[in-house]
Automatic annotation (TrEMBL):
Highest taxon of the lineage: Bacteria
Identification of the protein by name: YgjP-like metallopeptidase domain-containing protein
One Pfam family, short name: YgjP-like
CDD domains, sorted: M48_yhfN_like
Organism whose genome encodes this protein: Nesterenkonia jeotgali
Domain called YgjP-like metallopeptidase: residue spans: 91-147
InterPro entries, alphabetized: UTP_pyrophosphatase-like, YgjP-like_metallopeptidase
Length: 168
């Protein structure tokens, strides 16, 4: 359904409850026998949305960060910077990210893990830009500005930094 595989398990023992889980990429929906096909489809779509929202909130793995960085490189920089590795770092308390241009390695502060994906993307774009331009001069700023939410993400991170400095 809608490009996703759905396994429907009808049960005579179920009278009202509907449950769902995902097994190997397939949505498994357990429903009462009496449910119409339309009702099953409506519930399947609702559960797909719920599972997608839940997956979006789950922190990205290092592999997912690398994949995302490469996608952002393709989208905003024509694939020119190709990072070799992208990982979360628990050692970065002052910076949101860092880049070692000689090895093509990007590290993001683990403090970003629970932040919105668009904020993480902004930091990734910033670090990717460093693989092209090492400093923070006009050329660098031009590269970073290609990401449309840079200003919004900078303001978000400035607010988080302010709150951290003024907590307690």
């Amino acid at each position: 359904m809608d490009g996703h595989e759905v396994l429907v398990v009808r049960s005579a023992r179920r009278t009202r409850t509907i449950t769902a889980d995902q097994v190997a990429g397939t949505l498994r929906l357990r429903v009462p026998v009496r449910l119409s096909q339309r009702e099953v489809e409506d519930h399947a779509r609702a559960f797909q949305k719920k599972l997608a929202r839940r997956a979006a909130r789950r922190p990205r793995s290092d592999e997912e960060l690398l994949e995302r960085a490469r996608a952002l490189s393709t989208r905003y920089f024509d694939g020119v910077p190709q990072p070799e590795a992208v990982s979360w770092s628990t050692q970065q308390h002052q910076r949101w990210g860092s880049t070692t241009s000689t090895t093509g390695t990007i590290r993001l502060s683990s403090r970003l893990r629970e932040m919105p994906a668009w904020v993480q993307d902004s930091v990734l774009v910033h670090e990717l830009a460093h693989l092209i331009e090492p400093g923070h001069g006009p050329r660098f700023k031009e590269l970073v500005a290609k990401y449309p939410r840079t200003g919004e993400a900078d303001a978000f991170l400035a607010g988080v930094s302010w709150a951290d400095r003024n907590a307690g």
